[in-house]
């Protein structure tokens, strides 16, 4: 239950990332925004690592998963996320990324041999149906497939692939160490691309824009990354990814609070389906395992 609560906490902050990212794009160029946030989180994580544990040597076998993760989970994911948000609203973007649990479960079944149980499949279907209720009329199902939608779809695939790679990486090294190195290498890989694709950029936003950038970087790309990667090792990539279905619900609530966007009864019903799907695939599965653990046969 502690693991599930931590995943719920991360999913809530990840959901707010869509609204915060859309706001920050008003003051920062897309790729520079990604590079700056990675820079802030990298410095924070690196200082904490050196102060508490010290640097760990990376072996060649570690780099087999580390390098692909940086290219897919950091470079491709970061670029596609902020580039897609320039032409796609936060709600539609959150819907597309909510497809990640389904693709992650399929990839986990293929590459990690994780079981795809009937309960997990049913929970995914229920939560996925709730995603469309949350978006409601005017969401991506009723919108033409624009360039931004395709970019966010690529972002979703990169996210799914990164969770598989992180699961393999944390089997070889500590989850926190893996988070520090991937974030640092992600910053090193994203910044040159930002300078090359968006040259001659003069960023002079207001002081409070920088506060929002630093705060979101520390919480979402720093603290959440550490917690999320550690929990993936405990419950598996497929089950952890189910919590991503909560992102549209969080984006809807935060949009109402910050932007005054109205919430319909249909969206409320959808959010109930999303939460029910996550509960179906997680809490009840835990009860089943406990029942099996203390079955009369084993005793």
Kindly describe this structure.
The chain is mainly alpha-helical. It has twelve helices and no strands. The longest helix is centred in the last third of the chain and has 29 residues, at 207-235. The chain is globular. It is a multi-pass membrane protein. Belongs to the EamA transporter family. The chain crosses the membrane at residues 31-51, 63-81, 93-112, 119-136, 148-166, 175-195, 207-228, 240-259, 265-283. It is found in: Cell membrane. Residues 3-135, 148-282 form the EamA domain.
Question: Any descriptors?
Answer:
299 residues; mainly alpha; 78% helix; 0% strand
The SSE string, one letter per element, is: HHHHHHHHHHHH
Number of strands: 0
Radius of gyration: 19 Å
Mean pLDDT: 79
Structural class: mainly alpha
Biggest beta sheet summary: none
**What is the beta-strand fraction?**
under 5%
Helix content: over 70%
Quaternary class: single chain
Separate helix tally: 12
Low-confidence spans? 136-143, 284-299
The separation of the N and C termini measures: 25 Å
Question: Shape, please?
Answer: globular
Keywords: Cell membrane, Membrane, Transmembrane, Transmembrane helix
Domain EamA: 3-135, 148-282
Membrane topology: Multi-pass membrane protein
Transmembrane segments: 31-51, 63-81, 93-112, 119-136, 148-166, 175-195, 207-228, 240-259, 265-283
């Amino acid at each position: 239950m502690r693991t599930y609560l931590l995943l719920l906490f991360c999913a809530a902050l990840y959901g707010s990332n869509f609204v915060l990212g859309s706001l920050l794009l008003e003051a920062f160029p897309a790729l520079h925004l990604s590079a700056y946030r990675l820079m802030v989180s990298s410095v924070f994580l690196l200082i904490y690592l050196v102060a508490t544990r010290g640097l760990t040597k990376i072996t060649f076998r570690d780099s087999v998963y580390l390098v692909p993760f940086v290219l897919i989970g950091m470079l491709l994911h970061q670029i596609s996320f902020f580039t897609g948000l320039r032409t796609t609203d936060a709600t539609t973007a959150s819907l597309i990324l909510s497809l990640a649990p389904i693709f992650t479960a399929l990839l986990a079944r293929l590459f990690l041999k994780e079981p795809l149980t009937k309960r997990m499949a049913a929970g995914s279907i229920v939560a996925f149906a709730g995603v469309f209720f949350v978006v409601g009329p005017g969401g991506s199902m009723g919108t033409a497939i624009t360039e931004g939608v395709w970019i966010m779809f690529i972002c979703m695939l990169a996210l799914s692939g990164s969770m598989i790679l992180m699961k393999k990486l944390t089997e070889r090294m500590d989850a926190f160490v893996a988070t520090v190195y991937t974030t640092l290498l992600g910053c090193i890989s994203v910044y040159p691309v930002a300078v090359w694709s968006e040259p001659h950029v003069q960023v002079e936003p207001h002081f409070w824009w920088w506060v929002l950038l630093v705060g979101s970087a520390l919480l979402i790309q720093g603290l959440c990354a550490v917690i999320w990667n550690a929990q993936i090792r405990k419950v598996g990539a497929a089950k952890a990814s189910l919590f991503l279905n909560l992102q549209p619900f969080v984006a809807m609530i935060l949009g109402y609070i910050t932007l005054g966007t109205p919430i319909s009864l249909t969206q409320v019903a959808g959010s109930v389906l999303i939460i029910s799907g996550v509960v179906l695939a997680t809490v009840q599965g835990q009860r089943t395992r406990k029942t099996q653990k203390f079955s009369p046969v084993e005793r």
